Predict the structure.
Amino acid sequence: MDKARKEQYIIKTCCVIAAFVLWLFITSTENPLTSYKIKSIPVQLLNTDTLTRSNLVLVPGQDLTIDLNIKGANNSVLLATKAENFSIVADLDAYALKSGEQNIPITIKKSPDNINVVNGDTLFVKVNLDELVKTKVSITTNITGDPSNGFFASAPVLSQTSATVSGGSKFVNLVKKLVVEENIKGMESDVSKTYKLKPIDESGEEVKNVVVDPAQIDVKIPVSKTKSVGVSVKTIGTLNEAFTLASTKVSPKQFNLTGSAAALDKVENLDTKNIDLSKIDKSTTISTKVIIPSGLTLVSGTDDVNIEVNLDKVVVKDAAQIEKEAADVAANKQVQKSISQDVKYVNLNDLYEAKIGKNKDLLVLSGTQSVIDSMDPSKIAAQLDLTNLVEGEHTVSVKVSVPDGISLVSQDSDKILVTITKKLTEVPANNGN
C-alpha cells in the first residue's frame, strides 16, 4: 500500500514539472502577444517650407516626439526594440495650419518586422506654431571703458542705423533694440571693426530665437587727443565816458577740445564773439559763445560762456571839487587808452628771415590816469615768439607785455601770419683763377 502511494506521488510530481516546462515553452514561443511601450520617438516634420508661405514659424524648444505601444511574441525582441528603430514623419503640407497648438497626424515609415504597433493609426504629434513677423529695430552702441588719459572717444559712426529682426511674434515683440558692444579702455587711436548685432529686451537681456539681418555691421569709434584751453574775451567799441571797465570774469574759464594734433597745437585760447562796450552802461553778465576753430570740437558741454562785466562809474564833480581832489582823482581814476604798437618778432633762428603779415596792433590799455599819462610806450611790447619755427607759414600768437599798473583790455589782432624763409647764401665771385 505504501509502495503504491509512493509511486502515485512520484507520478504527480513528474506531471507538475512537465506541465511547468511546457508552460515555459509556450510562453517563450507560442504564447499570445506581449505589450510594450517605446517612449520619446522623434517625429520628423516634412515640407516645413509650408510654414514660411503661411507666415508661420515653429515655436522653439518643442519636444516633437511620441510614444508607441507595440506587441510581440518574444519578450527579448520587445526589450531590444529602441526608438531609433522607427522612422516617423508628419507632413505639414497636408493640413491647414494656423498660429497656436495643433495636432498633426503622424505616419510610421519604418518599424521592426517582428513587432506590431498597436496605436499607430490614431497617433498625432502636438506642434506649436507662432506668427512669423519682421520688424525694423534701431541700432545703438554700448561703449564701456575710457581711452588713455589725454584722449577722447567721439560718437561712434555706424554703417547703418537699423536692421530687420524676424521670427515668431512671441520673441520678436520682446526685442527693443539692437546693440553693438565694445570696451575702449586704454585706447589711443580709432577703433574700426565689424560687430555682431545683439537683440536686447527692455531689461537688457539678450533675446534668443530671432534672426537679425544683417547679423553684423561696421562701426568706427573715433579716438583723438584732447587739450584744455582758456577763454579770451574779445571787445569792440568804447565805453561811455561816464564809466570805466573795472574787470571781466568768464565762466567757464576753460574748455576741453579734441581733434588732430596739428589743430590742437595751433590753439591756446578760445575767442569769444565780440562784446560791444559802447552798448554797456552798467555792470552786467553777458551770455555769448566761444568760437571753435575748424577741425576741433568740444569734448563735452556747449560753446556757451557767461562774461561778467563790472563797471566803475566816473563821478562828475564841480570845478571846486575837481580842483580840490584833482591830485587824488588823477592818482586813482581808472581810464582807458588806445595805442598802435609796433609788432616785432623774437627768437628767430639765424638761418631764417621772417616776414609778418601785420606790423602794428591796436591795443586798448587800462590804468589810473597818472599811470596812463606817464606811460612809456617803449616799455610796451607786442611780440611774436618764433622759437623752433622753421621755413613756411605760421599763425603765431601776439604776446603783449605792459608795465606794472597797466592792464590790457583788448587787442585788435591776437594772432598774425608769419612767413619764414631761408636766408640767401652769398656766392663768392669768380676771380678768374
